[in-house]
Amino acid sequence: MLIPHSQYPVRQTMEKGESLAGYLYRFQGGNGHRITRRLEHTLGALYRGTATDAPPAAFDTLQTLLGTSTVLERTWWLRKRRLPKCSNGHENSRPGLDVVPVRFCVLCLSECGFHSALWELPLIAACPIHQIQLYECCVVCGKTFSWSDLMPDWFCACGQSITNAPIRLASPGQLLFAQLLAGSDDIHLPSRFNDRVEPSLAQGYQLSEVYAGLEWGSRLRQALCRNSRQSSQQNQSKRKYRPFWSDDWVAALLMASPDELKHRILRILARRFRGHKDLLCSVSKLDWLYRMMLFVDTGSYGYFQTKIQVAVAQIQAEYQLKLPISSAVFYNPRISPTWRSQSQIRLMHWWANLSKHIGELNPEMFRHQQIKTTPPIKYGKREYELELLEILNRLSSAAFEQADLEDFRAFRYWWRIPKELRELRDPSDVLPKLGLHLTVIPDYELYFVGSLVRLACQAKPA
Ligand SMILES: [Zn+2]
Ligand SMILES: [Zn+2]
What we know:
Largest sheet: 3 strands, antiparallel
Bound molecules: zinc ion
Oligomer: single chain
Strand order of the largest sheet: 1-3-2
Number of helices: 18
Radius of gyration: 31 Å
Mean pLDDT: 84
Helix content: 40-55%
Low-confidence stretches: 83-90, 228-243
Number of strands: 5
């Protein structure tokens, strides 16, 4: 039976930002005791929070021990807790806390004299205040710190004082991760550090949102980098060894300003389309990148996801060519917006000249085709969509190179287009309108147009 705190002679109170385990250690130490294995075990059950019945029981035991002087916040401790592995960003709980190893910032410990709750968060490795690495092993005996092994007043079992450990600077990645966690509203830092936290960190988010954001951010990165053809098995085995929240790139993404965020996503998107020279790129429905785009339309799951959603939506608005097909079509992210608008202007002028010579499609005939044949894209078949994209890309590059209209003689002669396609006055309209028309013509016509365009491009002298 654990003896309630009210029965001890020395009764220290819990400090703001102090960890529960650290407080118990300090309280017991003040009375000449150490943390028993049993108490450590109870703490572990509450901290991990994985088994169904253990955490509430552990909570009650610890609350009884503390008595009325320290009231634990039930909702915080007993919220559903498991490591978010695969929740599609729907995660709304925080992960369990680490009771082992016990981590310390030696400078915080010297200044405050207590163990900070921040150091119990999984995988935290740095102090965001002092920008140094946390210790979880003794520098003399090398043993991992645990509450039941520590001697009172912050000494290792070997007799070494924890605060005597040398200072090691934290890496930028470790620091970023620690800052992200420390900025959560439900993490309280010791009062004396109130004015030492960067104001940019106080952004009004919860710890669970950090973890959900980290999860989604790492999925986003996968979506951006991964080609659908790449083996998913390879990725899975890699993921096993590298938990998503240890990812510096993702932590940096979450900390970024909206503009920086957009820039980062675009940069990785450009890497994804490395080797593509065409104006338009497409992503199939099965691609991870496509799923990323769906994410933008599906509700909001917290602070960081909303932040990412806004950036992704902006990128889509800027780069996507909206066509009623199952693939997503993008302006090549490797091509700058200025370059792109120049090539759109060229295309408009070149197309205006070319289309003057293309016969007009009889509306009767058009309607007849619409009734008698199924337009190709209705099937959502990738090969049709690729053919469509190739036509648009070849026309754009022909326009960009100011290709001789004579080369397009056969194209002009054999194809018929509706009148409105000859009257495009807005540079940003040409590709969408042309693309839209190509989605409604029958498949044999689409391939025919495709071969006429290829013929014209071949006619170029080498
Ligand atoms: Zn510190
Ligand atoms: Zn030691």
